[in-house]
Specification:
Helix content is 43%, strand content 19%. The chain is of the alpha+beta class. It has a two-stranded parallel ribbon. Strand 1 (3-8), helix 1 and strand 2 (33-39) form a beta-alpha-beta unit. The protein is flat, with a radius of gyration of 12 Å.
Length: 67
């Protein structure tokens, strides 16, 4: 089972120093985390700004719990 990291490329946290190296390394650092989904043009409130994409990621994750 793996979770997904979802963020927007306009989120201020995504722009913090070192995040460009940390986010791609997350699956190696924590095997329970899958690859990151970086949503273009999206800020901090991803569930409000890109609800369809966030819901799809959540449903995929929840579906993986049955495996």
């Amino acid at each position: 089972m793996s979770g997904r990291y979802v963020t927007g490329d306009r989120d201020l946290v995504y722009g913090f120093l070192g995040m460009d190296q940390l986010i791609p390394a997350l699956p190696t650092l924590h095997p329970g985390i899958g690859p990151a989904d970086i949503l273009p043009g999206c800020g901090h409130w991803i569930a409000e700004e890109y609800s369809d994409q966030v819901n799809a990621a959540l449903l995929e994750f929840l579906g993986s719990l049955n495996s």
